[in-house]
Design goal:
The protein is of the alpha/beta class. It has 13 helices and 14 strands. The chain has helices at about 5-10, 15-25, 30-45, 50-55, 75-90, 100-115, 130-135, 165-175, 195-205, 215, 235-250, 260-270, 305-320, and strands at about 60-65, 90-95, 120-125, 145-150, 155-160, 180-185, 215-220, 225, 230, 255, 280-285, 300-305, 330-335, 335-340. The mean pLDDT is about 85.
Length: about 350
């Protein structure tokens, strides 16, 4: 028969509430008493009954974390920060992958709430969904905090980063280096035209009179998902595509990538085509991953404050749980442009010559 807090209380001649508080490290119990109770619990092989505790206090101490894919480095890092912050507060976290789509996210969130989670953290952008649809379908019975690269257009608790400002820093940097033929290489699908990275590019292309922004944006070849659910870009396909792109746009002196993964692939592909980075073409990316500081040359990036975002999201969520309050709140985090070795001044007006 499993040991209970009542068994421990009888052994030590203390109240069961004292045992309960001591096992939760409540400071109202003297440290010596807490230590004695924990030692007795270990001796008696006590295991907490979380289900019973939940029936008593109405909480499961479990948080649902919904995200598009757990294989992306930035997502796994965000999940780890959130999990650590929640663990310190006495909560566990269940991660659910939704492929970043609206319907699966809605279904999984409602399912997690039905299973008794105390709150939800939802990562996503959902660009093809209207504000009215979000307000109708993303109102969950449990406290919820949304984290994303955009400000979601409906009343909610959300933490986002100002990626459009990051794009402004990139364009200002490139323009200051003398670049007038800046192209965007996008890894995002067509539905994301309202995504801040695009809005920032439109705005700054117009600001610096660099031509028609829509004609400067090019979609990278479609990626595919392998059997493990990871997004894969085919190097050979991208190489052929880049060669054709540069043949069609020999005036290009800078490429701004929406994905650091694509940018890192460019740093590998361009030298094989006889194009030097940054001497012939500067390359820069929105979003920072581990490989960006280890590449050759090191990649200039807009770094997103993922750690601070997730810790803030956890704080907002715990506040909502503790105060039974899900009122809308918005926190916008600044990005940081990190200049490394992949960008430099335009050296000449000579057009790119590719290897055959």
């Amino acid at each position: 028969m499993a040991t209970t807090i009542y068994d421990i209380a009888r052994e030590l001649d203390v109240s069961h509430s004292t045992v309960s508080r001591a096992l939760r490290d409540n400071p109202t119990v003297a440290s010596a008493t807490r230590r004695r109770i924990k030692e007795q619990a270990l001796k008696m092989r006590y295991k907490p009954n979380l289900l019973a505790r939940g029936l008593v206090n109405g909480k499961t101490q479990m948080i649902g974390f919904l995200t598009g894919s757990i294989y992306l480095e930035m997502v796994s890092a965000a999940a780890m920060v959130a999990s650590n912050a929640l663990r310190k507060a006495g909560y566990d976290m269940q991660i659910t992958a939704t492929e970043g789509r609206f319907k699966p996210t809605q279904h999984c969130a409602n399912d997690l709430v039905a299973r008794g989670v105390d709150g939800l953290i939802v990562r996503g952008v959902f660009p093809n969904i209207t504000a009215e649809q979000m307000q109708e379908h993303f109102q969950f019975p449990a406290p919820t905090v949304f984290t994303s690269a955009v400000q979601l257009p409906f009343p909610c608790r959300q933490v986002c980063h100002d990626e459009a400002a990051g794009v402004t820093e990139i364009m200002e940097h490139l323009y200051g280096l003398g670049h007038r033929h800046i192209y965007m290489l996008s890894g995002l699908w067509e539905g994301w035209k309202k995504y801040p990275v695009f809005q920032g590019f439109y705005k700054n292309t117009a600001k610096y009179n660099l031509g028609n922004a829509r004609e400067k944006i090019h979609k990278a070849p479609e990626s595919f998902f392998d059997e493990n659910g990871r997004r894969i870009y085919d190097t050979e396909v991208l190489t052929v595509w880049i060669k054709k792109f540069l043949q069609s746009h020999p005036d290009c002196t800078a490429i701004f990538c929406t994905s650091p993964k694509i940018a890192l692939m460019l740093l590998s592909i361009l030298p094989r085509l006889g194009v030097r980075v940054p001497e012939d073409i500067s390359v820069v990316s929105s979003g920072d991953i581990t490989g960006a500081s280890c590449s050759h040359p090191q990649l200039s990036v807009v770094s997103l404050p993922l750690g601070k975002m997730m810790r803030t999201a956890v704080e907002l969520l715990l506040d909502g749980i503790e105060n039974d309050d899900n009122k809308p709140a918005k926190v916008i985090m600044p990005t940081k442009f990190i200049i490394r070795q992949s960008t430099e001044k335009v050296r000449s007006k000579a057009r790119i010559k590719l290897k055959n």
